[in-house]
Amino acid sequence: MPRIMKSAAVVLTLLALIPVLMLVKARVTDSGRPRLSLVYDMDDQAKVKTQRAGALFADGRAMRPPPTGTVARDELVGQDRRRDGRVDTLWVETFPAPVTAATLERGRERYGVYCAPCHGLAGNGDGIVAKRAEALMEGTWVPPSNLVDAAIRARPVGHLYNTIRFGIRKMPAYGSQIGVDDRWAIVAYVRALQAAQAGSPSDLPPADLAALGPPPAPAAATTTATTTGTTGTTQQ
Ligand code: HEC
Hints:
It is a single chain. The chain is mostly helical. Helices cover about 50% and strands about 0% of the residues. A two-stranded antiparallel sheet has the order 1-2. The relative contact order is 0.09. Residues about 225-235 have low confidence and may be disordered. Heme C binds next to helix 4, helix 7 and helix 8.
């Protein structure tokens, strides 16, 4: 091989190394310039980064200090029966605020949004999601509880509140979607559903009972039983 060709081969080999070395250098060194990018997508956006200076706010800080008085969720301290539904390990047995017709109406509306899909409009555990899950027969579905069952009727209101806030067993938590007052309103409405289906005349204050008039005659009792059955079905 002529000498000139040997030299050319060496030079070409060395030249061919240059792009490779440039790539290696680009990978191991920092550069203030944005990366070479043929399709930009959202690689390089105008944004402020945490813990850096930023020109957007007058104080030059990219991050905003929290407003005075802000308490992070995991920094909540002390006890609050309204917020927690319990005091120490004891569930709250009474509502933290008076239950009015407006509370019940709000509870009815929120219940329809958040609970009825699984528990059904009347609370019997036969909501549209439950029906669909049963129809799919995947074998993994845990049916929603019947909220009128004696066991759930016996739960203190604080327990029901806690169930909405944190979920229970297979039921997911709704605390991030339903605020404190709305949780209590839903609990009140669940109590109303229970009273409507499993209440007894003795639950009423004497004045209200008197206002209802005398109980139906025994002959009408059979009819009442049938009607109750039908109403139960229609409500679901
Ligand atoms: C995604 C379906 C679903 C939704 C929505 C849902 N639940 Fe449930 N709920 C369940 C299931 C399932 C159970 C039974 C869980 C188990 O036994 O593992 C249950 C159980 C319960 C119980 C019984 C807990 C106990 O003490 O044994 C209560 C009370 C309850 N839910 C209330 C509510 C309320 C109030 C809402 C609306 C804020 C709601 N649920 C929304 C699925 C749901």
